[in-house]
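Extended Data, panel c. Modelled sequence:
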Amino acid sequence: LANPSGYEEVLPLMKSLLHYGAYAQEEFEYKTNDLANASLKEGAALDSVGLEELNAHKASNNGVILEGLSFTELSLLIESETTMRFYYRLERGGNIANYSFKLGDKALTAQYSEKKGMYYVDVAGIDAKDLDTQYTLSVTDAKGNTQTITSSTLSYVRAVVKDAANHKDSTVKVSKALYLYNLEANAYFGV
C-alpha cells in the first residue's frame, strides 16, 4: 500500500480488508501489538454503520412453528472461512432424524454441539462479495410442516449492532468492519 500506483481500483477493498483483519485480531486477541492496518493513516469509518444501514439485512422467517424443534440463534464464524451457523433446540426425547434441513435444494445434516447442547447447521464458505446474499434455510418435520429462515451474514451484523450493549466492543467493531468490507467487495466486483 506504500506505492498504490496501478492498484487504485482495488485499493479501497484492500484497505477495508486490512481494517477488518485488524478488528478480527482484536476480537480474537491475536497479535494485537501488530495490527493488520497499522500502516494505514486513516481508520475505518465504523461510526457510519448503524441500524439504518443494516435494516435491509434483517433476518426473517415464515412464522411456522415446528413441534419439538425451535430455532434459537444465528451465529457467525469468521476465524477461517465465513460461516453462518443456525442453532436449534430439540425438545427432550425428540429425534433430530425427524427433521430435514435444506439450503435451497441442498440437503444439510444437523450436527450436535456438546458445548451449547443444541443442534446446528452451517452455511459455509461465504465470499466477501456474498456477505449480503440472503440464504433461505428450510426445516421440514415428519408431518410435512416447513419453517424457513432467510438471512445473510449481515443479518448477524445487524443483530450485533442492534444489541451492542450486550456484546463486547471488539465484537461490535469487527461486525461493522465486516459490513464495510462487504460494501467495498461489492463495489470492486461490480455487484
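The helical segments are 11-27, 51-54, 153-162, 169-189. This feature is highlighted in the accompanying rendering.
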